Structures are given as C-alpha cells and as structure tokens.
Amino acid sequence: MASDAGGLCILAGVSNGDLVGQLDRQLEELARKWERFFARDRQVPTPPERERTELERRLRELSRYEGRASAEQFRMEQLLHRFATYNQMWQRMMRDREEARAGAAGAARPPNAPAPAPVGGVSDEYQGVFSRYVDALGKSGKEASVGFDSFRQTLEQQRRQLEDRGSVVEGFEVVEDGTQVRVRARVRRGRQE
After folding, report:
1. Residue extents of the structural domains in the chain
2. CA quadruple 111, 112, 113, 118: dihedral sign
3. What are phi and psi of 185, to 5 degrees?
4. Residue 189: CB partners within 8 Å, gap ≥ 6?
5. pLDDT single digits (tens) 38-66
6. Is the confidence at residue 81, as pLDDT, over 90?
C-alpha cells in the first residue's frame, strides 16, 4: 500500500477508476453541502470551503497521474470539468451574497435623497407609488379615481405582462406630463437571473 503525505491513498489493488468514483461521490456530497449552505440550513452555518479545498487538492493530485485507460481519462476530465463548473457557481453565489449583505448594510446615500424603490412586487412599493400618484394628482387639481387595491392590482398585472414579454421590472415611477399624471414601469430588457 502506498500513501502520499496529503492523504490520497493509492492502494495496490485499487484502480484509478475507483478513485475517480470516490471523488465523484465526494463532489456530489460537497455540492449538497453548498446547496444546504445557500438554503441557510442551520446544520451548515458556514461555507464548506475546507472540504472544497481538500477535494480540489485531491483532484489535482489524481489528475497528475499518468497511464490511465482512455475511459478513466475521460471520467477524470468530466469530473474536473464538473468541479470547475460548481466552483465557479459557488464563488459567484458567495460574491452575490456578500454584495447583497454589503448593500443591505447601508450604502451611503446623500441626505434627503429618496430611498430607492424596492424590487419584487412588495406591497410597500405599491403603497409608496400610490402615495406619490395621489400627491401628484392633488398638485394638478385632480382627485384619484381609483382606490389602493385596484391600483395595486393594475400594477401587478402590468408587471406580469412585462415579465412575460422578457422584461425585468425594476419598479414603478410617477410621471407628470403637463396636466397628466401617469404611472410608468421602470424596465430593463432581458430575463431575470
């Protein structure tokens, strides 16, 4: 039996294919841990970075081994590619999570600047837009002819229609055009990720 200092054990009777199979199972287990971490599972409170680093090291060691059959080489390359894909996804999700946390911690805004409208059909967003709409109508000498519930339903319907056409609705804004007051969706083209 031969063992290297890093813990990768190559047994006299164990083929590289068996080692690739073991590493494949470890990758699947690691992927499940990351999923649980991103799902905020209490049993996985921290990112499984140590396990990821260890699996990366073991994959690198085994990939250096030469003399594999073509089928084993193919399985090894597939495994390395899957690991790289997962790794990129985990890093992107961690970066997105950190950016969201940093943004929520309070991005500096100039005093008296209006708060950005929340995204995602939150009732508070609709309430804020409705208040601005009623205020703008009052300034133009008109009265709102619609109640909040029907106003909200109209905006939700407009949001769904725009999203069905592939737009991303970032929010709604009140637009005063002469004597007319309208509510317009702020949209960005492209599917939401």
Report:
1. 2-103, 123-189
2. positive
3. -80, 140
4. 166, 167, 168
5. 888 889 889 999 999 999 999 998 888 87
6. yes
What residues have CB less than 8 Å from 128, skipping those under 6 apart? 117
Eight-state DSSP code of residue 5: T
Tokens of 89: 């996804």
Exposure b/e, 16-39, CB count within 10 A at least 16 = b: beebbeebbebbeebbebbeebbe
Q: How far apart are CA 77 and CA 82, in angstroms?
A: 9
Tell me the C-alpha distance between 22 and 24, whole Å: 5
- Cα separations (Å) of 184 from 29, 89, 113, 170, 172? 47, 35, 20, 11, 6
pLDDT at 29 over 90: yes
Residues 179 and 134: their CA atoms lie apart, in Å, by: 14
Q: Which two three-digit tokens encode residue 29?
A: 């287990």
CA 90, CA 88: separation in Å to the nearest integer?
A: 6
